[in-house]
Write a structure and sequence with these properties.
Layout: H1 2-22, H2 25-36, H3 40-67, E1 70-71, H4 74-90, H5 94-108, H6 113-146, H7 150-179, H8 192-207, H9 209-236, H10 244-258, H11 269-282, H12 286-313, E2 321-322, H13 324-331
Antiparallel strand pairs: 1-2
Helix pairs in contact: 1-11, 2-12, 3-4, 3-6, 3-9, 3-12, 4-5, 4-12, 5-6, 6-7, 6-9, 6-10, 7-8, 7-10, 9-10, 9-12, 10-11, 11-12
């Protein structure tokens, strides 16, 4: 019942925002004209570079699996990640894709169910930490620009609340893992179980610090490639006044807000955010900013559809190889 209510809310928010974004018939005509005149070369370049988002994410997930003693064939790892991407698009938020990834890993490593869930959680945390780091850099370097209008100030405040709240528990868990104070947490402390779960993640990261460093580097590549798809979208529409750094400064804000599961895949909300941020900060009309958001999103949809093809063709493979330490653990 809760899922149905959430889906109805998402559809209502999506429809409402899309109405306000596209209600002006003149702007709709201008948007369509801009899309018709898009530069195919930049679209192809954006799509090619955008693939690094998913390839780097797949390698990161595979390395984290190996750190937990689960060694799947690399084609299988890439397949699982792409299927997860597909379910992120059509499921209820990012959680849908995570559940799918856990399902497929557990199906092939049935004795490693806990490790599969642990890996997906670690994968999410690494991505969040890197996004927070990127956001912090741009907030420090371009704070005046990002808060130059009342509308962007409000969005910046929302962004800080969202990212601050979601990352606060993560950083508390990291501190507890480093100091060894986690067992002293009061039994009735709210979110105690989740904090202890995150502490375990960071303790494991400390034992596999080389994998963690590699995962962080891959996350930077993934985020940077995704930002480039929207920069390429702007160039495809022959918008020369937006730099890659402008796009990189606003994308953490956009990603943090559309991560809230109040719309279907961020549709409508993303376009509204681009309309406000690029409109106010770069003085661009909605007839340009909205198509930029649409093209960038559609490049991502292209890779989601690849995930759909993989999902339809998925077959169960042989059980993965367990690393020696994992085999010893099972024998014990």
């Amino acid at each position: 019942m809760k899922r149905v209510a959430l889906l109805i809310l998402q559809l209502l928010v999506t429809a409402t925002v899309l109405y306000f974004v596209f209600r002006n018939p003149v702007q709709r005509a201008e948007m369509w004209q801009a899309l018709q005149q898009a530069d195919l070369r930049w679209l192809l370049l954006g799509t090619a570079v955008g693939s690094l988002t998913y390839l780097a994410g797949s390698v990161r997930f595979g390395l984290l699996l190996r750190a937990q003693g689960i060694v799947l064939p690399w084609p299988r790892v890439f397949g699982i990640v792409f299927v997860g991407i597909f379910f992120n698009l059509f499921g209820l938020g990012a959680v849908g894709g995570d559940v799918v990834k856990i399902f497929y890993v557990v199906r092939e490593a049935q004795s490693k169910k806990a490790a599969a869930g642990f890996t997906v959680l670690m994968d999410r945390i690494v991505g969040l930490i890197v996004l927070v780091g990127i956001a912090a850099v741009f907030v420090v370097l371009r704070y005046s620009w990002l808060t130059s209008t009342p509308a962007t100030q409000a969005l910046m405040a929302t962004f800080v609340l969202i990212l601050g709240g979601s990352s606060g528990i993560v950083f508390v868990a990291a501190f507890l893992a480093m100091t060894g104070l986690s067992q002293r947490l009061p039994e009735r402390l709210p979110l105690r179980a989740r904090i202890l779960e995150l502490v375990t993640v960071f303790e494991e990261c400390g034992r596999n610090w080389r994998t963690l460093v590699a995962a962080v580097v891959l996350s930077v590549i993934a985020h940077g490639a995704m930002f480039f798809t929207f920069f390429a979208s702007a160039r495809a529409l022959r918008v020369e006044s937006i730099s890659y750094w402008d796009i990189s400064a606003i994308m953490p804000i956009v990603n943090a807000i559309i991560a809230i599961p109040i719309s279907v895949s961020g549709i409508g909300v993303r376009e509204g955010l681009f309309k406000t941020l690029l409109g106010d900060l770069c003085h661009l009309p909605a007839s340009v900013t909205v198509p930029i958001a649409m093209i960038g999103f559609l490049i991502g949809v292209f890779y989601c559809l690849i995930g759909a093809v993989v999902y339809l063709s998925f077959k169960r493979t042989a059980a993965p190889t367990l690393q020696p330490e994992a085999e010893a653990e099972q024998a014990g």
